[in-house]
Amino acid sequence: FIEVSLMPGKGNLTLTGQLGDVMKESAKAAFTWTRSHYKELGLKPDFAGKLDIHIHVPEGAVPKDGPSAGYAITTALVSALTKIPVKRHVGMTGEITLRGRVLEIGGVKEKVIAGHRAGLKTIILPKDNQKDMEDVPANIKKDIKFIFAEGIDQVLKVAMKFWPPKKV
After folding, report:
1. 53 lies in a domain?
2. Is 145 known to be catalytic?
């Protein structure tokens, strides 16, 4: 899971949890996407300059890297900023671009199995990873609803308790 804290500030972005360079880049891409879509998110244009944002990926003793948390970081950040909760038992993995496109990732089978063990009922994956489902055990496929997304807007519609947010 990913935690986001918002504090009055000057636009600083802090990333913790022993994140590697690629994961830090994913967090920055998520922040940039969020800033560039402030209107659709119901945020004020200057929201980023008045807040300090801290993104933390727990279990700090465990190094983490790769682009696969892009969906999750974006969703956690949007949830904190809009105050719209993320649905319980929804998991996601996928890289996000600055334009909000979602890109294929590796290790789908392992990530889906871990999500099943964690009790997830819905998992959002990149559309380009649909082909990897043949490697996922049948018993897991019947227990979980899979959503294959092309854009972060699809991810947010599935992951958030309600969507879209109210406009400012």
Report:
1. yes
2. no
- Rounded to whole angstroms, what are the CA distances from 102 to 9, 67, 90? 30, 11, 17
CATH code assigned at 104: 3.30.230.10
pLDDT value at 62 more than 80: no
Set 44, 64, 68, 127: catalytic member? 68
Q: Look up 36 and say whether it is catalytic.
A: no
pLDDT tens column, 95-154? 999 999 999 999 999 999 999 999 999 999 999 999 999 999 999 999 999 999 999 999
Catalytic one among 111, 145, 157, 161? 111
- Candidates 140, 120, 3; CA nearest to 72 is 3
Residue given tokens 């993104």 in the structure block? 55
Number of domains in the chain: 1
pTM here is 0.91
